[in-house]
Amino acid sequence: MTARTILVTGASGVVGSALLRVLDAQGHRVIALVHHKPVEVESARGDITRPWLGLDPRDYRDLAARVDVVVHCAASVNFGAAPKTLHGLNVAGVGKVLRFVSDARARLVHASSAYVRHADDETVALGAYASSKRQGEILVRESGLPAATARISTVIGDSVTGHIARLQAFHHILGAAMAGLIPFVPREPGMRADLVPADLVAEALAAMATTELTDGMYWITAGEAAVTFDRIIDIAFAVAVQRHRADDTQPNLYVEALKPRIVTPDTYRQVIAMVRANANPDIGLGRLADLDRLIGAQQSARYFPTSLGVLPGSPPPPTESAIEKALIATCRYLASFPKEYWNGR
Fold first, then answer.
1. CA separation (Å) from 251 to 233, 245, 306, 317?
2. CATH fold group of domain 5-166+194-226+302-318
3. 3-class DSSP state for residue 186?
4. Pairing state of beta strands 29-34 and 69-72?
5. What is the DSSP string of 38-71?
6. In whole angstroms, what is the distance from residue 111 CA to residue 163 CA?
7. 8 A C-beta contact, residue 205 and residue 18
8. Cα–Cα dist 319/287, whole Å
9. β-bridge partners, 217
10. Could you please report the per-residue DSSP string of 133-173?
11. Is 12:39 a contact under the CB 8 Å cutoff?
């Protein structure tokens, strides 16, 4: 395999940090573009929302002269972020990265979102987020540069350790539910969540970066291995019971009593209206908004397609059993946080 110099933006994030490990293990020369948090490979401190990627012009030119491939992972993945923030990172930021790719005469792997499919659906609460990601995809497609796009679904922790570089909305919701802070979860019968472990996403992106893909759309998703919401709740609370088994102040029956009840969306809306009216301090309104967006993102009965196993060099598509094992690992990682941590959302 020919070694390449690969620039990874968003290198300290959930996907970027996992990708650094994979690329380093494969022997590629890796440079990380970071904004705040340091990483353990060669890095440059920059900002994709600023000219020259926030670098000194001389440093920018030196970096462009070295880079063969850019894997663009930096983005706002906050479904509830302000439209201005989403546009600055997910649209204008993509434009500045494309300029760098052009200056470097490099190839681009653009990390997008599977939830782009909701960009035109005004009934889904994450429409602004999905729209910003779609606009970023359009910029990539119309740039004329050699570029391939990865549509990624909800990322959970490492398949084995469950570790997550940065907690995102799904992790906060799951952790709060395990701590007994979310009493109800709405879902239609059979509703599933498409979850992919961070290391699986990283392996697929590495395959895209190290093969000569110059165009196309690739789905990094669980596909038909998506897990039902009922199963997610069962797994989370099996882990919660294990976590508290040795704690005499929280016996198993107490922990099991905190398990969220699955209700219909109509019942959920009535309950939430009551909760909002009473401003219950134990159920953060921000957490409820995150849950609304998460449910909205997963509301379609259709599976996402998946390119895993078809994409050259990528891992095979996951089985439902493999996704469940990764979810167990993620829940164990989240269970290591004290209950007080989840009260802050």
1. 19, 6, 42, 39
2. Rossmann fold (3.40.50)
3. strand
4. unpaired
5. --SS-EEE--TTSGGGGS-HHHHHHHHHH-SEEE
6. 21
7. no
8. 30
9. 149
10. HHHHHHHHHHT-SSEEEEEE-EEES-TTT---SS--HHHHH
11. yes
Helix (H, G, I), strand (E, B) or coil at 112: strand
Q: What angle do CA 114, 116, 120 make, to 5 degrees?
A: 150
Return d(Cα 310, Cα 258) in angstroms, integer: 42
pLDDT tens across the length of the chain (345 residues): 566 899 999 999 999 999 999 999 999 999 999 988 888 899 999 999 999 999 999 999 999 999 999 999 999 988 778 889 999 999 999 999 999 999 999 999 999 999 887 665 554 556 788 889 999 999 999 999 999 999 999 999 999 999 999 998 889 888 888 888 887 777 777 788 999 999 999 999 999 999 988 899 999 999 999 998 889 989 998 898 887 655 555 555 556 667 887 777 777 777 666 666 665 555 555 666 666 666 666 655 468 999 999 999 999 999 999 999 999 999 999 999 888 888 754
Distance CA 255, CA 179 (A): 8
Q: Where are the alpha helices (DSSP H) in 245-300?
A: 252-257, 265-278, 285-297
